[in-house]
Amino acid sequence: MAIDKELKREIRVETGMKFGRDMPSPAEVKTVARQVLEAKLKQKRLPLEAEAKESLVNAICDDLLGFGPLEPLLRDNTITEIMINGPDRIFIERSGHKILSEIQLDDEGHLRSVLEKMLVLAGRRLDESSPYVDFSLQDGSRINAIISPLAVDGSTVTIRKFLDSLKSLDDLVRLKTINEPMSRFLRAAIQAKLNIMFSGATGAGKTATLNVLSHEIAPDERIITIEDALELKLDQRHVVRLLTRAQNIEGKGAISVRMLFSNTLRMRPSRIILGEIRGEEALDYLQAINSGHDGTLAVLHASTPADVVGRLETMAMYAGLELPSSELRRQIASGLNLIIQHEQLAYGARKITYLTEIGGIKENGELILNDLFRFEITGRTDNGEVTGEFKLINKPVNLARFKKRGIRLDEIF
User: Fold this and answer.
1) Are 163 and 177 in contact (CB under 8 A)?
2) Could you give the CA distance from residue 289 to residue 10 in angstroms, rounded to a whole number?
3) Is residue 413 domain-resident?
4) What is the pLDDT of residues 366-397, one digit of tens each?
5) How far apart are CA 309 and CA 360, in angstroms?
6) FRET pair for 254, CA 20 to 30 Å: which of 50, 75, 298, 363?
């Protein structure tokens, strides 16, 4: 026999009331939940198997101490994304495949209760005046939530989980995201303090690659990160993390990426890491990488290396200084060194499809994009999975930064 949702809610509420404002341990919650459950079953004369009782007690513990029915999904390291389309339609992504999960929340109120716990921990709010929000959990998982009336069929929550399993370039090689020569070149690029742009579509693996490459940064460097939501996980001791702030209910107090970036330049950084370039801060970024701030790492949404250049140019124009396109292209050519292009292929495989060097600028103002490595698709398997191979295309033309730091590329190229 199954327990109906209303009885589950009663047991959950009554168990929670036993503790008030106290912070109980999981063992204490389970003990009280069992007592409440047995009392309810006796009162209503309902039979329930021992296995079902234990499952319900664990669910109540997850509700009171964690994020309810979402806890098993959050703990499952094989799941990369959780997509909640209302309380009874929870999809998950595993190995690139999106499937409907058996997990459900009781109702819209239950979903909003779980979501509110997440918001409180992140210090963010979600209500009718501000019906959508982006934030991160403490483990780095990225969350977007949107509620009624904008989400017509119920609150919609998208959780992109932080992949703690990716810790080194060797992990990217193991997953066939890159090959061994690309791994050696990327390590050399970090050591040479190239200014690198991580580009690709949403979910293509940009931030994951940035996190992995950050482990190659020397431990004595002062690193300053700027993010809208805390996704970056750096192991170095000398790290300063800056976070933007949304406007308050009166429409004031917002702190943008551009404001933080301007202040960062006065903080003596060895490296600056930008979680994402989205607007007018692109101009500040270009000016910084052209004024001695080497080794800057940044993320940008773009579908090809050529699109990176175009988007940077367009966003820099948002700053309103009315710089000519030729000047913006000159700054991109002289400041940006390497573009790492990401793509999620059919059936979920994530690849770095281009490592592209900015090779200078032509007389007509066109940038020279020199592809060093490229992933070339060769076909598909019977089940539709894309097959291909990484190819070395060209040698770098700008070797001065590598030579300056005594880094040899002979074994790679």
Assistant:
1) no
2) 59
3) no
4) 899 999 999 998 888 777 677 899 999 999 99
5) 12
6) 298
Instruction: State the average pLDDT over residues 19-42.
Output: 79
Edge-first strand listing for the sheet containing 367-380:
239-243, 223-227, 271-274, 297-301, 196-200, 338-344, 350-361, 367-380, 386-392
Please tell me whether residues 203 and 249 are part of one structural domain.
Answer: yes
My answer on whether 148 and 289 are in the same domain is no
| 8-state DSSP, 79 | E
- Please, what is the average pLDDT of the chain? 88
Average pLDDT over residues 50-77: 85
For the entire predicted model, the pTM comes to: 0.82
Residue 180 sits in a domain whose CATH number is 3.40.50.300
32 and 76 both lie in a single domain: no
Cβ-Cβ contacts under 8 Å for 243 (sequence gap 6 or more): 226, 227, 228, 229, 230
Please count the structural domains in the chain: 3
Q: Which of 255, 249, 353 is nearest to 304 (CA)?
A: 353
Q: What are the backbone angles phi and psi of residue 45, rounded to the nearest 5°? A: 55, 50
- Amino acid present at 83: M
Are both 147 and 179 inside the same structural domain? Answer: no
- Which range marks the domain in which residue 38 is found? 1-57
Distances in Å between the Cα of 95 and the Cα atoms of 43, 124, 140, 178, 374 are 46, 31, 20, 17, 23
